[in-house]
Write a structure and sequence with these properties.
alpha/beta, globular, homotetramer, 7 helices, seven-stranded parallel sheet
């Protein structure tokens, strides 16, 4: 591993995709800044990365607070130039329309869309003076389809996709690569395994490669960051080979 | 005009599309409930409709307030059964990314997306017990494309489109028609004429039918409401014949 | 019914949607030119329209033959100015990939896409000198989604949609309205009822309005033709209220 | 370079993208089978690959002929198991609608869509018994948008995209990765440089990285082939950083 004088910030560094992304960029020599609501939960990730010889800083942050996001990214950038910024918080909920409270609708939007806007804008503010950077947003099936019961989640995810497009069109010509990944299937997380059980399935007897490994997803983030600027991807989808779509 | 025992509510009854929709449904015999931020500005619309023999009630409401929306729709429904509900507030703004404040981003979303969710949900609450109704949302070019400078507006409009889709999938089988109109061009409004001037054009020398008349747009809302339930449209676009797209 | 000095041509005037469109435009006073592979099968449609006081000419034509299409439309136009042209042939097939022969792939394309191109182009050739006309294309779910087993059908339907878009962008500013309808559900046809039986259902016990009536679909074609040119729709979808999508 | 017992076939191995893909897969140890209309033009590519120590076979083939495609792929597969198959022929033309002859419309479709169907199907026939393989299709801006003058090209490209989707849905669960790349900008080819001149530009004074290098595009094909099967991408777009879209 060759250390780089560069930081990769991950907002929404949860136990699965977010953590895998953090490990990947750390392995590639980035100083990683990992943020999530409860920063204490980042201890295992920090241990993992440091054991492998990587550099990582863990912070508690509320992705719905402009001040938190700005402070986190500015600190990261003081540590070493912010080259990569990834926005990954999840907020997947499903409620019948009449049971979708204004509080849920607003909170899901704040976490999944508003926080993404703030993150992208603050990252751009730091990257633009250097004319260089990568900003990546995690999308989902619900980024493209407003399914039954998903008024809150799909609305936020559609909104985040618009943010990504708008930023890409403005920042691309300034050499900042903005991309949006459609994670169109279940990643192998505790949440997904629980939902499989709820539907009467047994997640332990799934065929191999039926759920996406967080590491495979993280590789796609790395690929997007690695693309030469004469051929940038703005959007790609990801799903396991056996998925029905 | 045959009066119906039915109400059509228009939230965002602005001077142009919203007013034309209100006039159209009034002409078709509906009692119209028209709401906008400053209800005093509805006086000319009320005069128009009443002069033509129609029925209309004007109210001030803040489409970003759950209580306002609920009170408005419940009052409309007590007046006569709420059969049609139209969400039409505009919030078209364009800012460079770094100048898009969190306040603007939030406010645009509250007006154009959150208010739409609340409106649709409260309308559904009133319509579902009767198993009948039409809910229509006004979209824009920015509902499909996150253009440069449109992070706030496109994000809100994408989000509203997801709300419309999600509601349509849940409410359709319960006989409530939810549709979304993509207004993909300039309607003949003061705002659009001003923007034409800013770009060096003269809105008074435009070819005929180059801008959409609000009445033409209103006819599309009426058409959607009039469709038999064995053939419902969820989404259609509207633009003048000469528009480049 | 007021007779008009205008012709509406329907290519693919099958027993269901195509026939309903022909009846609708005849009722609205158009001279209808109805064409299908085996023109003899048009006898009941002709009888229907004439009984109702309408005017109709039935012709055999092969929508895969440039000469047939041109001759049909030119004859229609000599009869009275061609104002409306509708392309409606169906070619819905589903085969596993390895069983999709080159013959099937080509034939489905010729019927559903190539014929549509020829129809639209020849209609435009007749309409452009008068600066007026409407050209409508029938699409399907497969216009937007390449489902399993639909390589041939979806490919042709995607292709037809591109033709419609390209024509709309070129012809719109010349006052020719080109639109594309996504028929996203089963219309009440013998073919659809047969497929319901194959899946173990009983089409005679379906809930009312579960299948689209051809007349409801035809009304959407009429609506598109009737739109004023300051507010044209290029694409709309149609499905019954209870449809899952 | 470690030689593999595996063949990568490139149909439409033109001077730019196709050749770059061939070189890339040869460098990665594949035996490459390169086909184009006039196989003699492949001599420089063959020299390049062999000089670098790679293995390549060049063939003349007409991608519009089922027999040619089948013979080419079967020969490739006898040489070493066919693991990768790439369909890349271009057919970019722009004609006003009335000047788009049926011959052009048909020919463009045969080259850009029908040939893709045949290629994908024959590749699948060879790959399915081994339960392994990658099939990649080259798309373009016109795969998503039917622009003015593009009735023929966009129709074919839309059609090819449907083929790719349909194949992906059927073949994915059988462990064959089917993907579609949207090349949404000018690649650095003689054709594109000529078009820049026609518009009055000077392709020699373009900013660096304004046109895509074929090698950058080829890397995306390699990336798609390299994805683990628990996280496959079906579609991604590619454009240079400065592109307006």
């Amino acid at each position: 591993m060759t250390a780089r004088n560069a930081t990769a910030a991950v907002i929404g560094a949860g136990d699965f995709i977010g953590a895998a992304i953090a490990r990947k960029f750390a392995r590639e020599g980035f100083s990683v800044f990992a943020g999530r609501r409860n920063g204490d939960k980042l201890a295992p990730l920090v241990a993992d990365i440091e054991k492998a010889g990587g550099k990582v800083s863990a912070r508690s942050l509320d992705a719905r607070q402009e001040a938190d996001i700005a402070a986190f990214l500015h600190e990261a950038d003081r540590h070493a130039p912010l080259e990569v910024c990834i926005f990954n918080p999840g907020a997947n909920v499903n409620f019948p329309l009449l049971e979708t409270t204004e509080r849920v609708f607003r909170k899901v939007w704040e976490m999944a869309c508003y926080g993404g806007f703030l993150t992208g804008r603050e990252a751009a503010r730091l990257m633009l003076p250097r004319g260089k950077g990568t900003i990546l947003f995690t999308g989902a099936t619900a980024s493209l389809r407003g399914g039954k019961g998903y008024a809150a989640f799909a609305s936020a995810k559609f909104g985040l996709r618009a943010v990504a497009q708008s930023m890409a069109r403005e920042l691309g010509p300034q050499n900042i690569h903005v991309a949006h990944l459609i994670i169109d299937a279940g990643v192998d997380t505790a949440f997904v395994r629980e939902r499989i059980k709820e539907r009467g399935g047994d997640p332990n007897t799934l065929s191999p490669d039926t759920l996406m490994e967080p590491e495979s997803v993280a590789d796609a983030y790395w690929y997007l960051h690695s693309q030469p600027r004469d051929g940038w991807t703005h959007e790609l989808d990801l799903r396991p080979y056996g998925e029905t779509w």
